[in-house]
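Renewal narrative, Specific Aim 1. Our central claim is that a sequence can be written position by position from structural information alone. The example that follows is taken directly from our test logs and has not been curated for this report. It begins with the structure tokens describing the chain, in the order in which they were read.
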């Protein structure tokens, strides 16, 4: 899970004004919400044998705290009214709890839903198209943001349905709603522990369970609002690439030559890319949606959610063991050797074992495949920072990267010096600084130092120890 290599990332943001109209049973409310949207892109890169590459793309949205919280309060009042009205109707109709027609529709703008108990996926005024899995057809079908069957963040195999969407280019994304977490066992040890999660209400510091006190510091049993939901401001969630990134013209037989990113299953992922290029390409993918190379804490946000009851939880995510680097592929066990029983159909019963949920709705390729570059490095002054990742290293846009202190550069010193970092699935979920099996699920815990200052995540197809990257 912890590895050192080169990574890049990018971000952009823009503001949009939205007008939303709610009407229900005599109540009409207009809320004007100003939001800042962030799209995160995560790309993995492989450089020679050590640096495999992959990409994961993520997007995130930001919302202005004040305006959104005002809107959320209004929405909450509406929800309460909804509950009240629903109850009255239910009573008068003998228990029918369906929401009457003409009442408030489920939003899809990052605001919190009392019904869904998560921040609703922000489809950015239609720039993201909601999709849901049709199990009879065995394919994704388009739906709408107010479709109550679009997603669910539940705890059973039937309800582990994280929201999926696609962008115009066909790339696929998965919504990670803002949450707080608590490592209740296994903190800073090599034994896989447990992580509890409570989803947050919008951009406010209150969880869906009413929790309002947070420690926000590394430590066992601390409740921390996950830091991945800060991107120049608080964001209500992030969209993460569903598969390792590939070139847009990639096929199963060849990686392609296009310089444009696409997130798609069943093709060779984008490898042999410098951190410098990965960071820049991710930023350029979609300026409107603030795309950027995934950061360490964003990787951690996906890993922790996967380890919670809303993800695969106690079952390790199976490894993508395809030596052809086919996106979405799965070996026949969590620790299958290279090409051992590989299934390249991500939707098959074997394939879904390699997603973060154990269902087709999760994120793939976070264990195995190619190593992922992330936008994070130890700031140790090595020439490699500029030579391999100058765009990342030199950017003054600090929200687009995670920088780790390195005043006495060695793997051990860097590890200990950054023991206060939390949410990035590094110090918290490992017991030692340099080991092939020092992290949870016997994952790699080597920390970056000297000439390899960049973090890389997720292991590769050939690593036999499991590599959950958590
Ligand atoms: Ca990978």
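The sequence written for that structure reads:
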């Amino acid at each position: 899970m912890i590895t050192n290599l080169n990574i890049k990332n990018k971000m952009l943001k823009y503001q949009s004004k939205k007008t939303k109209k709610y009407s229900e049973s005599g109540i009409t409310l207009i809320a004007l919400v100003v939001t800042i949207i962030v799209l995160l892109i995560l790309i993995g890169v492989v450089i020679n044998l050590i640096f495999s590459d992959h990409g994961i793309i993520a997007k995130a949205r930001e919302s202005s705290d004040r305006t959104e919280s005002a809107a959320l309060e209004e929405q909450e009042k509406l929800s309460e009214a909804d509950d009240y009205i629903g109850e009255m109707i239910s009573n008068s109709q003998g228990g029918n709890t369906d929401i009457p027609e003409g009442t408030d529709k489920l939003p899809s703008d990052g605001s919190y839903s009392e019904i869904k108990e998560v921040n609703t996926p922000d489809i950015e005024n239609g720039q993201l198209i909601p999709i849901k899995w049709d199990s009879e057809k065995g394919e994704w079908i388009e739906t709408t943001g107010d479709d109550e069957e679009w997603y669910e963040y539940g705890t059973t195999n039937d309800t582990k349905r994280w929201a999926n969407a696609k962008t115009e280019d066909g790339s696929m994304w998965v919504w990670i709603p803002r949450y707080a977490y608590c490592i209740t066992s296994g903190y800073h040890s090599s034994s896989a522990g447990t992580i509890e999660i409570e989803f947050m209400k919008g951009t406010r510091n209150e969880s869906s369970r009413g929790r309002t006190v947070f420690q926000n510091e590394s430590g066992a049993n601390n409740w921390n609002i996950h830091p991945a939901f800060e991107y120049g401001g608080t964001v209500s969630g992030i969209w993460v690439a569903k598969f390792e990134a590939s070139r847009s013209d990639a096929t199963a037989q060849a990686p392609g030559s296009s310089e444009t990113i696409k997130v798609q299953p069943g093709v060779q992922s984008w490898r042999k890319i410098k951190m410098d290029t990965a960071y820049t390409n991710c930023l350029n993918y979609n300026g409107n949606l603030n795309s950027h190379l995934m950061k360490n804490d964003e990787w951690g946000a996906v890993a922790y959610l996967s380890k919670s009851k809303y993800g695969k939880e106690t079952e390790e995510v199976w490894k993508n063991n395809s030596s052809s680097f086919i996106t979405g592929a799965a070996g026949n066990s969590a620790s299958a050797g290279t090409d051992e029983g590989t299934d390249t159909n991500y939707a098959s019963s074997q394939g879904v074992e390699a997603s973060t949920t154990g269902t087709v709705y999760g994120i793939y390729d976070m264990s195995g495949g190619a190593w992922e570059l992330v936008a994070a490095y130890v700031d140790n002054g090595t020439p490699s920072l500029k030579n391999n990742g100058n765009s990342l290293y030199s950017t003054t846009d600090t929200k687009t990267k995670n920088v780790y202190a390195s005043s006495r550069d060695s793997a051990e010193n860097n590890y200990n010096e950054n023991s206060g970092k939390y949410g990035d699935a590094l110090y918290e979920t490992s017991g030692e600084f340099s080991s092939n099996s020092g992290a949870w699920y016997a994952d790699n815990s080597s920390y970056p130092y000297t000439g390899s200052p960049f973090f890389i995540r997720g292991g590769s197809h050939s690593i036999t120890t499991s590599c959950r990257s958590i």
